[in-house]
Structures are given as C-alpha cells and as structure tokens.
Design brief:
The protein is an alpha/beta fold. The chain has 3 domains: about 350 residues, TIM Barrel (Alpha-Beta Barrel), CATH 3.20.20; about 190 residues, Rossmann fold, CATH 3.40.50.1700; about 120 residues, Sandwich (Immunoglobulin-like), CATH 2.60.40.10. It is about 30% helix and about 20% strand. It has a 6-stranded mixed beta sheet, with helices on both faces. The termini are far apart. About 0% of the residues have low confidence. The structure holds beta-D-glucopyranose. Beta-D-glucopyranose (BGC) binds next to loops.
C-alpha cells in the first residue's frame, strides 16, 4: 500500500497538465515515466511487457494456463486483450490497481476492426467508398463504442497490401494499392486516435501486420514471404510509413517470415527501420504467439533464443506468448540483452498509459452508463447504413435493370444470404451481434410499400451440393416481376486462417443463378463476400451485378437503398477481380515486360486460355448515371525539380441522375534506371455532380510524386518522359505526356 501512495504522489507531482489537455507529445510525460520506473523492480518491468488474453472470445491458440488473476497480482501482466465491457474491464483493472505492489493500470486491447457493436462493412468493402472522411468516421464511431466498453487500444488498422484474393485476410485491409492503402491507413488511424488520447473516446491504434504478411505464398495464411527489398519498399511498406505520419501509437509485427527471417525476430526490418530510421516513439507488439512461433519456424532452438531474437529485433510487448516473462531475466543475466533495452520497452508502454490518462483515472474508460448509451446508438446505425451503401460497387448494369422501381407488383428475393443475419457482419466483428442485423428481406420490407409483394426463397445453402430448394426458388422467381439473388460467401470464408484455393461463388449458388438467368426476367445478383471472386460466367449471364461485400449491421437497408435507387452507387474496386484464379497475383500496377501481350502474336506475354486483364479492374465501378471526361489539360509540358505540374480534366454528369464519381489520376515513368510500372495511382478525388453539371478536377504533380527507388536504391525522381492518366478506373483513362527536366 505504501508504494501505491508513493506512486500516486509521484504522478500527481507531475500532473501540471496544460489547459488544452495533455496531448500525445506532453513533455511532462517523460518525467512521470522515469519517476514510476525508478520505483520498479526488474520483474515488474518485465511484467509490463506481457500482454495476455482474458476470457472474451479468444483469437488464437491459448497455450498457457489461464489463471490471469494470479498473474496480474504478481505484477506479471502489463496489458490484456479480449477483456470486454465496462464491468469486466473495471473488475480486472481493480486487481491491477489495488492488488499489485505499484498499482500500475493495465491497457485493454481488442480487435476493433470494422466497428465494435455497430458493425460497418468489412474494411476491404469500406475502402471501395474511396471516401476518406467516411472511413475516418467509421473508425471514430468504432472508437466511441469500444472505449465506452472499456477498451484503450485497437489492433487496427490492418494495413497489409494484398494482391492475392485467395488470402482470407485480404478482407481486413485496403486492397492492392499502396497509395490508396496509405491514405486509408491514415484515415483509420486518425479516426481511432482522435485528437488527444486523454479524451475518453479515443484509443490507441495499431498498424498491423508489419510487414509483407499480405504476400503469403499461394495466398495461404501465415505462409512464407520471399520478395525483393525494392518490392517491399515500394508496395508493402508505404502504408506503415504513412501510419507513422498519422502518429500511430503502436505497430504489430507479423507472423510471416520475410526472406528467411520471421519479422518478429528481424532487427533489420523492425528496430532498424521503425525505431531507428523512422524515430517511432510508441511501442511495438508481437502478434499472437509470434515470438514463440519462431521455434516452429526453425530459427530459434527454444524460448530463450526466441525471446532473444524478438527483444533484439525491438519488439516491446509479447502477445500471449509469455516468452518475455520467462526468458528476459535470463537473457539479461547472460548479457544477451541489456537493461537499457528492457527500460526502453517499458518506457514506451508506460508513456502510452500516461497519455491515455490511466494513471490519473484507471477506470475512466469503464463507464456502464456510457456503454449503455453509446453502443448501437442511432447515429452510429445511420452511419453504418450510409457507409454500406457507399461501399457497394455496381459491376454490371445492362439495359439499366437497376435501379428497380419501388412500384413493382412483386419481387422475388432468392438465395442463401437473403436472411443469413450472421453472415452480414463478417469475421472480426468484435461485439457485433447477428440479432441486430437488418438482412435483405427486412431491408426490402422497410423500403417497399404494401403494393409490392415480396417473396423469398433460399434456393440452396451457401456451400454443399443440395439442389432441392431450386424448384421453389425458380417457381417464385418465375411469378415475380423482378428477381434479386443475394449470394456469395459466408462470414467464415474470409478473415484469419480462412484462405481459399477456389474463389468462385461457393456451392451450387452459381448453378442457381444460371437457372434464374434463363427465366428471362429482370435479374439482379447481389454479391456478399470478403474478397474478390472469380465470376466470368455470372458476368456473362446476368444483366445486373452489385458487389455488396459483407455490409455490416445495416446491410439489408443499404442493399435496398442501392437496389431501389435511393442511393446512386459510387463505389470503386480497391482490388482487381481476377478473371480466373490462375491469374493471381493480378493487379493494375504491373510492369510492361519485353513482350507485352499482342493478340494472335505467338511469342508475347499472355495466357493461351484467357485474358491477361482481370474481369473487373482496380478502380472500377459503375453508376446509375454516366460521366464524361474532357481531355487532360496540363499547366506546362515540362517541369523542373522545383516545380509542380497542374493537371486537370472537366468531368460532366451526362445522365439524368445526380451521382458521385471517383476521379483517378495515374502516372507512368516511361524510362527509368529500373523498369517502372505501366501505371501507378497518384491521386483521386470523389466529386458529386447534378445531372448536366460539370466540374473541373485538378491534381498537382510534384517531383516527389514521381520518386521511386532507383537503381542505387535512392528514393528520388529521375528526369525524363512521363505520362499522366486521368479517368474513371485504372483501365479507362485519358492520357497526356510531360517531361521532368534537371
Ligand atoms: C491476429 C491479429 C490479432 C491478434 C489478437 C492474431 O491472431 O493475427 O491480427 O490482432 O490475433 O486477436
């Protein structure tokens, strides 16, 4: 007890917080941290580096005994995950504060990936909005709910670039492109972290999984990654660097090995880059058990060696591995690590506890009243509906089948996902519950008046071979004025450890769609899925296809909003949809090769049984209106290294509905000291246009935007010829040349 009082007085002595609040760079914090550290034993310091799971739904293999209460009392725990709700977090926090020698509060972390209780579309889907304000707002709301339920730290955003639709975790990220991925990473970090951590509703974000986890060989989760340093720096690292610029509080190392060394044990990739080159001052956590897994990878003989690798790599906190608790003292005694390394890790973690204000009020996030009031609050649901509508991508709309009229006499809703509430919220859906989901049938009922007869038939299951529901579905569809089929993947088909080798629409759903298509009626396929699917046959057979992703709590309302034209779709794909799985990896930003594809020319770079291009390219998405693009205007044809080029187009809404368009700008460096991609996204703007309205959209291009890792691995632009492209997706573009001169 004596020590708790001492600790309190130390903290208060340093609590001369300025009137604007204590922000993340409060200078007083270093003094406070040092004072607390001066009271700590080595064991207590090591305890701060230990993150263990509570009794919530666990998110990995628990290998250790789960008597965490005893471990907290012994000062062996610094933070916990999967402890949710204000009552539970308060109970556990009380143990840390009242029953340990120093009373240092715990940080509670949780995977708040796309909402806490109100669930938004899966992050890949949400990225299809290309609307950074909307994306930031989702993260903000998620933080408001999660902090009201006692959480201080989210293991998000997941910012792994991926070009492999087989990988289940592609659903959690922002897709294939480092530029878009970086912008989205920053929006999400800003949303979670808010302005000041000492405000009640802000939480620490965690940029994960550092690094190259999305390049797992064969798309199989946790698999090996082997790539050039150039590819790593150009494609996979930028979102992590961008997160730093948005002041992300923490990083998580990934499970995968990279070029022979698991990242969790790689000083070269972790400490040397994040801490030394980037001067990051937050803390770095391992992934679940990823320190111990270095034994299985075959790079450490035992826990001692695994701990040695991780600590020397700069990993500050051990998630559910207990390696640090068991081995750091031995490693220190044997001179493998220094006391300063342990102190540095502890300092980084305590700093965040101070920034969160936990020393002043360890219970400030445990507030039953706030929890009751804020979870699933009406404005949150409203945002969930808006963001879900905005995330939907219209992939095809022949003969303007969509939007359907609200005056239909009847509509048939067919398919296993129509009423499958729990699938709408996907995996990593935190405390989201199926019972709060508005499914498509409910959404249609909410939308349509009594004059429209809504009939439903499941048709078949998501997986499996059974077709005995086909007859009923076809019968109902035949008698309806229009058919909407809601098909795709279940929630448990994307996410962690949920890779697929066949990414077609599963089960017999495709056959059901083909039979519906033969009825020759207005037919809309609404796809729900957490990854790109390969759907060339469906694309061929069906007039209208709407990609709805796993749309979250308000999914059914949002689907109805788009299908019946209350929202004009504006989503654009953040990832290419392959034509066939054999094209993977397929992405818009590729190299030209020495023999680019030419039809009917034998020795060119192509498949003999299909196209090189994906079925739907990156950036693609239709609207119920149409947009025309003028030719590109340049402010000048040449710029030097001190100048900025303005490029502009006029975009006109040439249809008869108001709508939004994502105007995309790409560049190509025609000749470099290393070969450059045929296109790279360098800017985008989302604009709203009334029918007949035009807007001028301009972008600035500076030499910085033209920089890349040159032959000597210098990040700089090289003089020469460039092309700029502007248009509606990565394939349908206007172009113009310009020069960069020395
Ligand atoms: C995942 C992380 C997650 C962690 C904690 C791991 O299995 O890879 O993304 O944050 O579990 O739940």
């Amino acid at each position: 007890m004596k020590f708790i009082n001492l600790l309190l007085s130390v903290v208060l002595a340093f609590s001369f917080v300025n009137s604007q609040g204590q922000n993340r760079i409060d200078d007083n914090i270093s003094g406070k941290v040092d004072s607390v550290m001066s009271l700590m034993t080595l064991e207590e310091k090591i305890g701060q580096l230990n993150l263990i799971t509570g009794e919530g739904e666990v998110t990995g293999p628990v290998t250790m005994d789960r008597n965490y209460v005893q471990q907290i009392k012994e000062g062996n725990v610094g933070s916990m995950l999967n402890v949710n709700g204000s009552e539970y977090t308060r109970r556990i926090q009380k143990i840390a504060v009242e029953q340990t020698r120093l009373g240092i509060p715990l940080i509670f972390g949780y995977d708040v990936i796309h909402g806490y209780k109100t669930i938004f579309p899966v992050p890949l889907g949400e990225t299809a909005t290309w609307d950074l304000g909307t994306i930031e707002r989702s993260a903000r709301i998620a933080a408001v709910e999660a902090t009201a339920a006692g959480q201080h730290w989210t293991f998000a955003p997941m910012i792994d670039i991926s070009r492999d639709a087989r990988w289940g975790r592609i659903m959690e990220g922002a897709g294939e492109d480092p530029y878009l991925g970086s912008k989205v990473a920053q929006a999400r970090v800003r949303g979670f972290q808010g302005r000041y951590f000492n405000e009640k509703h802000t939480m620490l974000a965690c940029a994960k999984h550092y690094v190259a986890y999305g390049a797992a060989r064969g798309g199989r989760d946790y698999n090996t990654v082997d790539m050039s340093i150039r590819r790593l720096k150009e494609t996979f690292m930028p979102p992590f660097r961008a997160a730093l610029d948005a002041e992300v509080a923490t990083y998580m190392t990934s499970f995968n090995e990279l070029n022979g060394v698991p990242v969790t044990g790689s000083k070269r990739f972790v400490k040397d880059i994040i801490k030394d080159q980037w001067n990051f001052n937050g803390f770095i956590v391992s992934d679940w058990g990823s320190i111990a897994e270095m034994i299985v990878h075959g790079i450490a003989k035992d826990e001692y060696e695994a701990g040695n690798l991780a600590m020397n790599a700069g990993v500050d906190m051990d998630m559910e591995g207990r390696i640090y608790i068991r081995e750091l003292k031995n490693l220190l005694e044997e001179g493998k690590i220094s006391e300063e390394q342990i102190n540095d890790a502890v300092r980084r973690i305590l700093r965040k506890k101070f920034e969160l204000g936990l020393f002043e009020d360890p219970y400030k996030y445990c507030d039953e009243e706030r929890e009751e009031k804020l979870l699933l609050a009406e404005p949150h649901r409203k945002h969930a509906r808006n963001v879900a509508s905005e995330s939907m991508v219209l992939l095809k709309n022949e003969n303007e089948v969509l939007p359907l009229s609200k005056n239909l006499s009847s509509v048939a809703l067919i398919g296993p996902l129509v009423k499958a509430d729990k699938e709408y919220i996907g995996t990593w859906s935190a405390h989201g519950e199926a019972k709060h989901v508005i499914n498509s049938l409910e959404g249609f009922k909410n939308k349509l008046g009594e004059n429209t007869d809504i009939v439903y038939s499941k048709g078949c299951d998501i997986t499996g071979e059974k077709k005995d529901g086909f007859a009923d579905a076809l019968e109902k569809a035949r008698n309806a004025e229009a058919i909407v089929a809601v098909v795709g993947e279940s929630a448990m088909m994307s996410g962690e450890a949920l890779s697929r080798m066949d990414i077609d629409i599963p089960g017999v759903q495709k056959e059901l769609i083909m039979e519906l298509a033969e009825l020759d009626k207005p037919l809309v396929v609404v796809l729900m899925n957490g990854r790109p699917l390969t759907i060339p046959e469906v694309d061929e057979a069906v007039p209208a296809i709407l990609e709805a992703w796993l749309p979250g709590t308000e999914g059914g309302n949002a689907i109805a909003d788009v299908v019946f034209g209350d929202y004009n779709p504006s989503g654009k794909l953040p990832v290419s949809f392959p034509y066939a799985v054999g094209q993977i990896p397929v992405n818009y930003e590729h190299k030209n090769t020495g023999r680019p594809r030419q039809e009917d020319v034998r020795y060119t770079s192509k498949y003999i049984d299909g196209p090189n291009q994906p079925l739907y390219p990156f950036g693609y998405g239709l609207s119920y209106t149409t947009f025309s693009y003028s030719d590109i205007r340049l402010s000048q044809e040449k710029i030097d290294f001190d100048e900025t080029l303005q490029v502009g187009v006029t975009v006109e809404n040439t249809g008869d509905r108001a709508g939004e368009e994502v105007v995309q700008m790409y560049i190509r460096d025609m000749v470099g000291s290393v070969t450059r991609p045929v296109k790279e996204l360098k800017g985008f703007r989302k604009i709203f246009l009334q029918p007949g309205e035009e807007k001028e959209v301009t972008f600035d291009i500076s030499p910085d935007d033209l920089a890349f890792y040159t032959k000597d691995m210098q990040y700089e632009a090289e003089p020469g010829n460039f092309k700029v492209f502007i248009g509606t997706n990565s394939q349908d573009l206007k172009e113009k040349g310009f020069k960069l001169v020395k």
